[in-house]
Amino acid sequence: MISDMTIELEWLPPFRGTEEIKCTSATLQVRFGSENATRFEDAWSRSVQNGARVSAYPLALWLASSWWRIRWEPLPSRIRLAPDEIPADANWRMSHELPAAGYGFIWPRLILASDGEAIRVSCRRSPALSPEPVRYLSEFDVFVPAQEFEREMDNFMDLVLRRLDFLGQTEMHVIWREVLAERADPDQSAARRLEARLGYDPDEAPLSLLEQMMELASEAGTSAADEIAPACAGSQPTDTLNEVMNLASQPGVPGRINVALNAGVDDLKSPPWQRDSPACACSPCIARFGWWATRR
Amino acid sequence: MEIQSDFGLTPPSAPRPGKTLCDEVEIQNRVEALELLRAGLQRGTFSAQERDGWPQNVWAVTKNGEALEAQLEGHGVYHGYPIAEADPFREKVLERWTAS
What we know:
The complex is a heterodimer of chains A (296) and B (100).
Chain A: E1 6-11, H1 19-23, E2 25-32, E3 35-36, E4 40-42, E5 47-49, E6 52-55, H2 56-65, H3 67-72, H4 77-80, H5 90-96, E7 109-114, E8 118-124, E9 134-136, E10 140-145, H6 146-164, H7 171-184, H8 186-197, H9 207-220, H10 222-232, H11 237-248, H12 272-275, H13 291-294
Antiparallel strand pairs in A: 1-2, 2-3, 2-6, 4-5, 4-9, 7-8, 8-10
Chain B: E1 2-4, H1 21-24, H2 30-43, E2 50-51, E3 54-55, E4 57-61, E5 67-74, E6 77-82, H3 89-99
C-alpha cells in the first residue's frame, strides 16, 4: 500500500542527558496514513499512548548518518527473495532499523529499505513478553514515495536543527550540512548513491570499487549500475562485480521469453517490488564492522 | 570516574517510583554499575570517539547477559542504560564482549 508519512513532535521539559538530548525531548508521533508506528503500551503507567517520549536528537542523528543507505539501499537480496521473516545481519540493520538510534530510548521497530522509487516501511510490534516497559503495538507494511520521504525527512531535520541552533554547531548540524551538500552535487550524489547500494556507509566503500562502479554506470547507464550494485554487496564486492562484468562480456545463450508485451504496463500504481521480480539473487550478506568505532 | 545510571532518570515512558530501567537488568546500585563501567574499559569495549580523554561510549554485559551502554555526559561522568532488545547494536556488543 502506498502511504504518506508524517512525523510530529511536541516538545517536552528536558530529560536528563547532554544538552542536545535535553533540548529536543519530545513526544514523537510517526504515522503512515492511518497507521501509527509510535502507538505503545506503557507498562509503568498501564496505559496506551500514541506518541513515544524520546529525544528527537538521536533519531535525527541516526537518520542523517544513515540517509544515503535508507534512501537508496534495498533489502539484502537473500531477504528480499524469501517470503518469510529472515532477519538481516546486524550491519545492515544498523543503518535501516530505527532502534539503532539508541541513546537509551526504546524506539519502535521500523525497518526502512529502498528500491529507489519508494521506501518500504515495515513496522513490527514488540514481543508480547518483552520485559521492557514500553511495548509498541503496531504492525504494518507500507510504501512511501521517495520524494515524499525526502520531504518529510527534510522537514523533520529542519525542526530539530532549529531547536538545536542556540547550542551552536552541533554534530547534527555538521552531518546534515554535508548530506545536503552531497545531495545538491550531481557527481557526489551519484557516488553516494552507488556506495549506499553497495551496502557501505559514506566514505567506507573502497575507492577502486566505487570507481569501477562509476565507470560501469557511464558505460551501461545509471539504471543498470543501480541494479548491479546491490547484487555485489557483501564480503567480496569486487570479486562479485568482476564476476558480473565477466558474465556480461560472454556471448550469452539464445532463448525466447514467453511474456506478453504489455506485462506490467497497467501496474504502475503498485509498489515497484510487486510489479516484477528482483533481477539478481547473488548477494551474500553484508559483513562489516565499521560501526564499532563510530557508534555515538 | 562516576556512573549515573538510570536511577532517577525520566525514561521514555512515564516513570513509576522505585522502578527504573536498571531494575529490568537487575543492577541494584551504583557500585555494580561502576564495576560494569570499569569492566568495559578494561576489556576495551569503548568507542574510538572521545572527549577530553574520555571515550564517548563504554559497553558492558551483565552476568545475566544483558548488554549495557554508557554515554559520556561530563568529565568522567557517564549515563548508563540497557541497550534495547530491538537495537541491532546489542548483538554487536554481545559478540565483542564474548570475544574480549
